[in-house]
Amino acid sequence: MRENLHRFFRAARGVGVHVSPAESIDAMRAVSQVGFSDRIILRDALLLTLAKSQDEKLALGDCFDLFFSQPEPRQEQPEGADQGSAQEADQASSSGAANDAGGSPQQELGPLAQMLLSQDRNAIAAALASAAGAASLSDIRYSTQRGIFSSRILDAMGLQRLRDELDQLTATNPALAERLRAALDALRELVRDTVSQGLALYAREEAENLRNEILRNAPLARIERRQVAEMRALIRQIARRLRERYSKPRKRQRRGHLDVRRTLRRNAAWGGVPFLTAWKRKHRDRPRIVALCDVSGSVAQVSDFFLLLIHSLHEVVDDVRSFAFSSHLVEVSEILESKSPEEAMAEIMSKVGFGSSDYGSSLVDFEKEFMSTLTPQTTVIVLGDARSNNLDPRADILRRISERSKRLVWLNPEGRLAWGFGDSEMPRYATFCSVVRQCATAQQLERAVSDIVATYQ
Amino acid sequence: MADQKASTSIEAVESGLAAQGYIASRQIATAVYLSQQIEKPILVEGPAGVGKTELAKAIAAWRGKKMIRLQCYEGLDEAKALYEWKYAKQLLYTQILKDKLGEVLGGAQTLHAALDQLHDFGDVFFSKEFVEPRPLLQALEQPGGCVLLIDEIDKSDAEFESLLLEILSDFQVTIPELGTVSAITPPTVILTSNSERDLGDALKRRCLHLHIGFPEQRLEERIVESRVPGISQTLRRQMVGFIHEIRSLDLKKLPSVSETIDWARVLVLLQATELDTDIVKDTLNVLLKYEADIEAATPQVTTFIAKAARSNVFG
């Protein structure tokens, strides 16, 4: 049973629950207290000791159900085969009787063949489980490994010997060979199911990591429609990571004014002579962000993900004001706060999207109406390709924005090589930006936002 | 055999807590049983008002132990949580003992000899008599054990969590001047959190993690029954059914168990025999704590009452 628990821990790691050795020891101790007989109590005990959050509890609960339901499909499968060939079973009993009378050739058969012929489900299940252990099924990582693991398990169960026997029987006892062959097919199916289940249990995280890794480096602007939902999930994951990293209380700077009250109390032991000083804590700064996003053409998708990311950083960021523009500029903060990401983006698009971009007049719009949102604590982020269709770029407005704010960051989905060619105004704008970065993939997006937040730490 | 013992022990926990008026679900009882058996603290998470703090009180009352409570807040430090030196007493004693010190040191000829003699007294002023024990140290010093409730740990600073690690895993604290103080009897430790911030992995690893959500209808009825005995069965069913309907709405703050109990008390006070639209609308402010929530729920009241009544017939 201890072996089973160890396999369960591996499965738990597979679904993303962090199980350290110390936790597995705790779980072992808990299980030794409650025993295996009551499955609900066992489940509760494992959930209590291993899972560390509500999400993990859900994942682990599913994993538990999947893991401990494993023996069932193994038993159902032969049953199906049974019903399909009821008459064969009849034959089996009669031929078995005949064989007993005629010196019983069955006894010469190997253990696997005997097991298959006797249709002993429990024995088959047990043999399969031990063969799966011998083939170290819990090491399976990718779906392409299914074939090799299946054949390893069958080999471990003694397929080679069974094959030889089948060859012999085809000559001597065709009826028996036929039955054995049907049973072998059923067994193959069973093994395939077991391997699929193993894959579902142990390889989920690995497969997910691989897919996420590919997704993280895919260009956001050219992402396929079916991947959009996955990308949103990934962005949410990134947001959570950033939140966790930056929402922890920052180390306080003990500088500035003397805290007289605390100093006196602390030094009471020395008769009030201030050996140790206590300082008033310094006010903590949190980022205030103003985001200007180009939503024209190819940049729209990147802006979409960027806005989603910025607006899911509530814990880290004090205040976000978002503006979207193509030919003119509107504020979109409220739409993004109140609606789901899909609806919000659709509404923004219907308001300002799909025009040809005009950076000059959009900047004019911003200066006229929203210049007062900028404070010396604000970080301004502009996301766009700076392709203004040869219209006046009004870089002077960008200069004023830069002067009024703490930082001006420009994120450009295009590669550095394309800047300045064609109608790209990037070099002129870049003069006034504190930072200019390329931002085409989820990974670059994460780095860019992470840097922005980090400057406030 | 051990298995049999476990399930009966878990039932014993359930009935023990029930005797104190705390109706525990199976998970809660299992957690309490396990924390006792493998001596680990329980970290209880869940929305406000589902009875996280009550659990600690019920355990203390059931086992007949003292409950020591440490309420966490931002800026809580070891001087308030663990121990502090009694500075005033130290000062007073040095003043009183001044003459005595003169006598003792009077025999010494040189400054060096006086210093040596002074060393012989040891750290008189940094001994146990001058330590003011705060909740954590108090909990360790209870001879018969106790229930230590560390309430709303998520409100404290991250540094404070690290301070707790030693006490949570080994039931001991180290005071630099005195050495290590171990628990006489390991206390039962309950930590509660409203998930305002994510707690550190190191802290979580040392605890059993228990999540208490809103209870199922049946369980909540039992809770109301034990807390508000004066309420009739029909009304109890109706109001719990109504609250479950309310929880399906998107509200800022969903009514939790404590609100259910308050509402039951209010209904009993108003001598209601069954729910009707008027009485619900008049008392909705007991359940919902935001103006916007009340506005959102008011149009649904009649439908919810009907639904609750219908489920009543079938349930």
Automatic annotation (TrEMBL), chain A:
<feature type="region of interest" description="Disordered">
    <location>
        <begin position="70"/>
        <end position="108"/>
    </location>
</feature>
<keyword id="KW-0175">Coiled coil</keyword>
<protein>
    <recommendedName>
        <fullName>VWA domain containing CoxE-like protein</fullName>
    </recommendedName>
</protein>
<dbReference type="InterPro" id="IPR008912">
    <property type="entry name" value="Uncharacterised_CoxE"/>
</dbReference>
<feature type="coiled-coil region">
    <location>
        <begin position="159"/>
        <end position="197"/>
    </location>
</feature>
<dbReference type="Pfam" id="PF05762">
    <property type="entry name" value="VWA_CoxE"/>
</dbReference>
<feature type="compositionally biased region" description="Low complexity">
    <location>
        <begin position="92"/>
        <end position="104"/>
    </location>
</feature>
<dbReference type="InterPro" id="IPR011195">
    <property type="entry name" value="UCP010256"/>
</dbReference>
<dbReference type="InterPro" id="IPR036465">
    <property type="entry name" value="vWFA_dom_sf"/>
</dbReference>
UniProtKB/TrEMBL annotation, chain B:
<protein>
    <submittedName>
        <fullName>MoxR-like ATPase</fullName>
    </submittedName>
</protein>
<dbReference type="GO" id="GO:0016887">
    <property type="term" value="F:ATP hydrolysis activity"/>
</dbReference>
<dbReference type="Pfam" id="PF07728">
    <property type="entry name" value="AAA_5"/>
</dbReference>
<feature type="domain" description="AAA+ ATPase">
    <location>
        <begin position="38"/>
        <end position="216"/>
    </location>
</feature>
<dbReference type="InterPro" id="IPR003593">
    <property type="entry name" value="AAA+_ATPase"/>
</dbReference>
<dbReference type="GO" id="GO:0005524">
    <property type="term" value="F:ATP binding"/>
</dbReference>
<dbReference type="InterPro" id="IPR027417">
    <property type="entry name" value="P-loop_NTPase"/>
</dbReference>
<dbReference type="InterPro" id="IPR050764">
    <property type="entry name" value="CbbQ/NirQ/NorQ/GpvN"/>
</dbReference>
<dbReference type="InterPro" id="IPR011704">
    <property type="entry name" value="ATPase_dyneun-rel_AAA"/>
</dbReference>
